[in-house]
Design a protein that fits this description.
This protein has twelve helices and eight strands.
């Protein structure tokens, strides 16, 4: 087994070179976890834009999966879920696939289904990141495969902390993680858009309303990240008989909390259906 050091830059490969893979590679380089010339990504031959993006980092972009595995210590599987099986079958007979860490960021593909395709010595970790990793503000969670080690978990944590936060969870919680942090940016964008629409309805110019709504969301999240409970922070903004009290009352009347909770639950249920289909 190759001993991977958390203190030294490592050779990292990407099977699949889309936007998320590029964001991760950029974050790893910025954090000093990998050197540009030690990153390799495979992209679809028609996806010249992704190939050029990786080359712009100083990395190597190829149109085959097998050389990626041969050149790398850690292999990140970042293709679409329905492509994971064919992509891994393409490289499973390689000697280089043995005793290697594979990190999958493909939504809904179980650890068991990945381990079934790879050589028995391969170690697997499943990660659910989200799109704010593109601006190094991602929220990721991961689960270990049957052969993944404590060092593999530490390495995965450090890699994904380079583009945000990272927590370990049991695999049965991954549907909930996907529904909350994976899908969550869409809910937040809808909230920001709605706040801006409200400002426009009250007479604000559209660009100012959107700017205020975005910064308000960003600032509120930053305050929570520094510690405190959202309910207590909400109370700090809510004066007796004031405008905020009237606004929150309107939200409660219209099932705001219930709608958000229901959205997360609906997304989690959909994940279960998709997972069952993918992992048959």
């Amino acid at each position: 087994m190759i001993k991977l050091s958390l203190q030294e830059a490592m050779k990292i490969g990407f099977i699949g070179g889309g936007r998320l893979a590029f964001a991760l590679a950029n974050g790893f380089i910025s954090a000093g976890l990998a050197k540009p010339d030690e990153i390799t990504a495979s992209v679809h031959p028609a996806d010249l834009a992704s190939a050029e993006a990786f080359k712009g980092l100083g990395a190597t972009a190829l149109f085959e999966n097998r050389p990626v595995v041969e050149r790398s210590e850690v292999v990140i599987v970042s293709v679409k879920p329905d492509v994971v099986g064919p992509a891994l079958k393409d490289i499973r007979d390689l000697q280089a696939s043995r005793n290697k860490l594979f990190i999958s960021v493909a939504m809904g593909v179980s650890i068991a289904s990945i381990e079934k395709v790879l050589p028995p010595e391969a170690r697997v970790i499943r990660v659910m990141p989200n799109t704010p990793a593109l601006v190094k503000q991602g929220a990721a969670a991961f689960s270990r495969g049957s052969r993944a080690t404590a060092d593999d978990a530490k390495l995965t944590t450090e890699l994904f902390k380079a583009v945000g936060t990272c927590d370990e969870v049991p695999e049965y919680q991954m549907d909930a993680v996907t529904a909350l942090s994976g899908s969550g940016p869409a809910y937040v964008y809808m909230l920001i858009e709605s706040l801006a629409d409200g400002g426009v309805r009250c007479g604000l110019p559209r660009d100012l309303a959107l700017r205020l709504a975005t910064q308000t969301t960003l600032g509120s999240a930053a305050m929570l990240k520094n510690g405190g409970h959202p309910a207590a922070m909400k109370d700090n903004v809510t004066s007796p008989g004031g405008s905020t009290a009237e606004g929150t009352y309107h939200l409660e009347q219209n099932g705001f909390r219930s709608a958000i909770i229901g959205a997360v639950m609906a997304a989690a249920n959909r994940c279960k259906v998709v997972n069952e289909t993918l992992n048959k």
